[in-house]
């Protein structure tokens, strides 16, 4: 892949898919994204583009800025500066990076769905109630229609018989699969996964990865922060390695994992192998 200029670290087309990707539109673009917490600079000028249908795996050590980047894209954190463009629409931001138009953020969030490390299910509601909450109360989908769709989604993630269960009575893997069903309920164009298996016992990781792998065949844009290197290599079109708030290296999985150029990336891959 040609070397990108520092401020235009766009994602190149996956090998063998140039014609398809050339026709695809940008689903997510971030330009020169910075984020600080007080004096701590977490993101230091990150720029990348994910086109429609891309599966982008984001890897890196603890504290590299991976989760913060996802949270900025969804405006769960306000960037300190930079640009965020979703489906060609630039988010209006004030000088300090905070969103300038709350209604725009609410509308854009209907195109995004985020799956968190710690599930974030409503513990006082059943799985069915969790899945229908946003469609009914935010998107104003008729309740009967939302319930029918929720049952389809719960079946899809292997939880058809758990719709009346509360999260506390489910395993971590089941809770995370329910969280994925809840994310799908808004029919998002972009899905953001923030280390979705990091809170799971090892024997439960596979069931969640299986669901995510199935989703990659749908053509949804997916940005996946993960520490599962083998999984990233199998499902991603493009891999981004973050180091101390900057993109240290990126490219197709075969290059990033098979022939890493950065010494830091080489050391990181050795440490997680």
SS element count, helices: 10
Structural class: alpha/beta
- Catalogue the unreliable spans: 1-22
Order of helices and strands: HEEEHEEHEHHHEHEHEEHH
How many distinct beta strands? 10
Report mean pLDDT, rounded to a whole number: 89
Helix content: 25-40%
User: Order of strands across the biggest sheet?
Assistant: 6-7-8-3-9-10
Report Rg: 18 Å
Give an account of the 3D structure.
- With 273 residues, this protein is an alpha/beta fold.
- The chain contains ten helices and ten strands.
- The chain has helices at residues 18-23, 66-73, 102-109, 127-137, 143-156, 172-184, 202-215, 229-235, 253-258, 263-272, and strands at 26-37, 40-51, 55-59, 81-86, 89-90, 112-115, 190-194, 221-225, 238-243, 246-251.
- The strands form two sheets. A six-stranded mixed β-sheet has the order 6-7-8-3-9-10, with helices on both faces. A four-stranded antiparallel β-sheet has the order 2-1-4-5, with helices on one face.
- α4 runs parallel beside α6.
- It is globular and about 50 Å long.
- The two termini are 25 Å apart.
């Amino acid at each position: 892949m040609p070397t990108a200029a520092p401020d235009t670290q766009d994602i190149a087309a996956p090998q063998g898919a140039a014609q398809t990707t050339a026709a695809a539109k940008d689903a997510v673009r971030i330009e020169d994204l910075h984020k600080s917490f007080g004096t701590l600079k977490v993101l230091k000028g990150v720029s990348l583009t994910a086109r429609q249908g891309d599966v982008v795996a984001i890897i890196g050590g603890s504290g590299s800025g991976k989760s913060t980047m996802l949270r900025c894209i969804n405006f769960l954190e306000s960037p300190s500066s930079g640009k965020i463009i979703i489906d060609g629409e630039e988010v209006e931001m004030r000088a300090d990076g905070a969103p300038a138009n709350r209604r725009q953020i609410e509308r854009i969030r209907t195109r995004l769905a985020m799956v968190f490390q710690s599930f974030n299910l409503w513990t006082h509601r059943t799985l069915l109630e969790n899945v229908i909450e946003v469609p009914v109360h935010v998107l104003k989908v008729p309740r009967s229609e939302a319930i029918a769709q929720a049952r389809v989604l719960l079946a899809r993630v292997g939880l058809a018989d758990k719709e009346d269960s509360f999260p506390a009575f489910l395993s971590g893997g089941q809770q995370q699969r329910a969280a994925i069903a809840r994310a799908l309920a808004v029919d998002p164009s972009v899905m953001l996964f923030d280390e979705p298996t990091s809170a799971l016992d090892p024997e439960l990781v596979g069931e969640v990865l299986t669901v995510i792998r199935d989703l990659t065949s749908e053509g949804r844009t997916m940005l996946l922060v993960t520490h599962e290197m083998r999984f990233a290599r199998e499902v991603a079109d493009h891999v981004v390695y973050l180091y101390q708030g900057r993109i240290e290296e990126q490219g197709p999985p075969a290059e990033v994992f098979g022939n890493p150029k950065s010494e830091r990336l080489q050391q990181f891959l050795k440490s997680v192998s």
